[in-house]
Amino acid sequence: MKKLALALVCLVSVAFFASCEKPVEHPEPTIAILNEEGYVQNNDIVDLNETVNFGFVISSNPQTLKTLQSLVVEIDGNRWATLTDTLSGLTSFTYKDVVTYLPQRDSIIGTSEITATVTDVDGKTATATINLKINQAEDPLTVGDFDWYRLGDDQSGLEEFGLYWDKNAKAPFAQIKPLTGVILYKFDSSVWEQVTFPTQKEAVFADGATTALMYNNVDVNANGMYDDVIGTRMPDGTHHLIHVTSCVIGAQQSAGRPIHIYGQHK
Questions:
Q1: Alpha helices of the chain — where are they, by DSSP H?
Q2: C-alpha span between 122 and 64 (Å, rounded)
Q3: For 208-223, how does the pLDDT look when each residue is reduced to its tens digit (9 = 90+)?
Q4: DSSP string of 166-234?
Q5: pTM (two decimals)
Q6: What pLDDT, on a 0 to 100 scale, did the predictor assign at position 41?
Q7: What is the spatial distance between Cα 112 and Cα 103, in angstroms, rounded to a whole number?
Q8: CA-to-CA distance for 127 and 203, rounded, in angstroms?
């Protein structure tokens, strides 16, 4: 009887101590951004058309040691990769991948979010996120020359910019006006040197640019030098930035004196 009583006491003691064990407070697995040379980190800046290396390191919870079940990777809310069989029976894994951000990806507006969620066999999850800034690198604007020509009623070189040479008047000055559906703008001369990239050009047209019904600063009585900057918005939304630099008057002909207005455009 004494031996049986002692055995019961021991059994009760074991049960008591087992019932006092505290559950693991945070039983979820762990996940971290791969910190390795050549791999992006949170808040890095990357370029369009650049191959971007990214990765995540996942592990089972160090206390529960529950094996890994799945890893789901999303980029900007779209499913990118799902791993299940690869993780079967594993307690740790390093995921590596690449992505290239292209201009035609409508979801990219200067930033991107890469999110990875790991789940273990107990259904516990953990998530890590890489936030990237997309540097939308641009090629510089191409600068071209133009020659606006008029002799009598004949004219050329203006239509591609949405303009026409209406007449010469008041001094006389060349009266150049926008075609139907085209908007004419006037800018400070400093804008020409300031604008070198497409986004800068779009910005000067958007940021309170002054519209005009006519450009009439070129005196067609004599040769002259100018530093005028104007612009046009075509019906399809295309913008032309125009730098008028000179006027050259030719010799008298039967139809009048030929006039050339020269400059550059972006």
A1: 2-19, 191-194, 198-206
A2: 10
A3: 789 999 999 999 999 9
A4: EEEETTTEEEEEEPTT-EEEEE-TTHHHH--SHHHHHHHHHTTPEEES-B---BTTS-EEEEEEEEEE-
A5: 0.55
A6: 97
A7: 13
A8: 39
